[in-house]
Amino acid sequence: MIRKKKLDRSHFLRLLAKSEPVIRSYLRALVQDYHDHSEIMQNTFITAWEKFSKFEGDENDFCKWACVIARYQALKHRQTQARDKLVLSEKVLEKIASEGIEDTASSQQWLEKLEDCLKELPEPNRDLIKQAYSPEKSIKAIATERKTTPDALYQKLRRIRKALSKCMDLPPRSPKKDSEPAYSI
Amino acid sequence: MNASDHNLIELYLEGNLPADKWKEFSHRLEQSADMRREFRKLSLLDENLRAQSIGFPNLAEREQNHTPHPILPWIISAACMVACFFIWEINQKNQPLEKAVIADTSTATPSAPIAELIDFYDLQFKNTTKPVENIRFDQGKYEIESGQLHLRFDDSVELLFNGPGSFEILNPKLVSVTQGNVRTIVLNDEGKEFTILSPTSRYIDWGTEFSLNISPSGDDLVNVHEGAIEVQSMVTKNMSKMLTRFSKVTDSPEFTPVLVDKQLENIMPGEMGGNRNRVLLDEFAADPDVIGLYNFEHPLLSKDTLLQRIPKAWESSKGNMLPHRWVTNLHLTNTDASHGIFHGANRTNGRWPQGVGLNLFQKDAHLSLDLKGEYENFSFSFWLKPTGKLDNPLNSLIRPFRWEKMGNLSIEVTRSGKLKQFLWGESHIQEFQSSKRKLSRDWNHIAYTFGKVNEKTVSSLYLNGKLYNRVFPNFTDSIVMRNVIIGCTNNNYGKYLNQFNAVLDELVLWKKTLNRKEITKFYRSGLPTYELNDLTLAATSISP
Questions:
Q1: Closest CA to B38 of A156, A162, A41
Q2: Fewer Cβ close by (within 10 Å): the C or N end of chain B?
Q3: Is the interface score ipTM higher than 0.95?
């Protein structure tokens, strides 16, 4: 009995490790606040682990199954937030959540492509992204360091993200064209 | 999707969406499937940029970590390099200790090994048949097929290992474990920073006690019982997280496959002796010479079954006897001895972790048993831990309800803690009972034997595996122990006197005469190995 539980854990962790970025991203669309996002992520994983004995399916099924749990957690969270904060309407969240579950394949593709896109990003832009997303410094502090304004920095980041977003939609490139950047900023 | 929609999404994800734009944003999202798709994509992008910047492994790393072939050798190489780096780093920190180890191994004179063997149970090493006591636990790899091992490092850290699995002692403060269940206890400040390396993480002990299960797949389970440990990822070396006993299952570090499991409770010091003892109790339960076996656990038998073997003294109260007052005779095939019933007592911690003993704490506290026969050969043994003062000149430890006939036996403890035996009608035996040894305040093993040796009847008492005193009765040829009371006496008018406050554990009754060798074996059965090293085996001659 104990042995089986350990195997389940191991299996669960493997599936989770593979699906986590998709689940994380899926939740990001449903929860704006980072702290709430982390909390809901954890609740999702705990619930998933608790219900894991009932799960039957493969890797893709797991991702969808976990997203269903995440959706429930996010909508539950929204109900507690709705009175105090600006939140998206339940109807919109429902739509995004449902489409996200139906389309986990796209999320997987985007994630795979994102790796390539980031590699092709010019070094200074990659550094900027890394700095901007690091929790150690605020945008304001980075802007001061770089002798620019926060607004200008936000603009720059938006351009980088837009370029990355475009790149993520591109079909996989043939190896011959590797030296040419797929996009420019 | 137009640029304005894209801009709204960007502002939302940045957390900069103005309050007056929320309605518009929500409306646009509701209307446009394209915008929702873009929103999901940008959310994914945003989340993964954030995750990567704070050190979450990217998708490629995840794939590497979970694809066993063909890049496994590369991962192992990389992990080895990282491990080597950590080992080097820790060795640098612990240089004086490292030097001491080198000095130890280079000198020809025998020196203390890095780890001291404290205890073991049912231990099988993979590559050696050497007796465990002869193994030096120095730097090196140890592969365990099965069993448990208890090591102590530098008198400051206890490491308890439960196989199957393998570990490598790298230095006095660093042990690498590839598989197995571990419990680590830091005993003092010297032991702080004791580190366990698993294939994926390292666990730095900051003065605490924790259980850790490491499986070959690289998934670790951890539970901190006291203090705090630091979990560091071997892959993303900058990631670290402190876990305490207050950490919840939700506090599992996200950067490494470590799960906090609050149920995890690996072996404790002393349990290995407990395991040996359990095996012995199982042997007793099947031994036809055993007539009574009591370990004081809560009774599992039904009330009807228990009532079939109720002690005589309690027969009149059997209708309203509460279930918790029963002590089951675990030897279920032999009906010579009844189940027990206690009064003025309760269950408390026994000799072993999670074991149960009977706490005779009230003035008239006692345990009642009923033995049917008259035994020409008879023995009993039990463990006893005194908890109160010995107020009377003689304090009854065990005696029959009525002191009335030949063959009645009583064991008394003097005010100073010495043991005395009495046999009805054998007053002369008092002259032959002298011993300097007394009961200690810790657990004492008391054994009594009666029977003929070389045609002569001998009645002997043993304390902690050694003969305490022996007498030669003139008239008694069998022991009669009907309606036995353990823990006090009575004044023949039904009033219980002479309190003896103590905790009892593992009471065994035999219808045979135990010899010294057997008594020594039973005494040793549950002791930790390091206590055994100080003992010399008693004489093996067959004499009670």
A1: A162
A2: N
A3: no
Angle between helices A59-81 and A90-102 (to 10 degrees): 170
Distance CA A182, CA A121 (A): 10
Residues B183 and B46 both lie in one domain: no
Chain A residue whose CA is closest to B250 = A42
* 3-state SS class at A101: helix
Neighbours of B505 (CB within 10 A): 25
H/E stretch holding B89 reads helix B72-93
Looking up residue A174, the CATH number of its domain turns out to be 1.10.10
Please state the domain count of chain A: 2
Q: Which residues on neighbouring strands pair with residue B382, listed in sequence order? A: B446
* Residues β-bridged to residue B180: B214
d(CA B424, CA A43): 72
- Res. A96 pLDDT band, cuts 50 70 90: confident
Identify which has the larger pLDDT, B370 or B355.
Answer: B370
Side chain identity at A64, as an amino acid letter? K
Is residue A77 situated within a structural domain?
A: yes
| Total structural domains within chain B | 3
Question: Is residue A50 domain-shared with residue A130, that is, in the same domain?
Answer: no
Q: Is the pLDDT of residue A20 over 50?
A: yes
Mean pLDDT of B227-247: 85
Mean pLDDT, chain B, whole residue set: 81
* pLDDT tens column, B472-510: 999 999 999 888 999 888 766 667 776 778 999 999 999
Q: Which residues in chain B are closer than 8 Å to A112, comparing Cβ atoms?
A: 59
Instruction: Tell which A residues from 99 to 158 touch B, by Cβ distance under 8 Å.
Output: 99-100, 103, 106-107, 110-112, 114-115, 118, 129-135, 154, 158
CATH number for position B442:
2.60.120.200
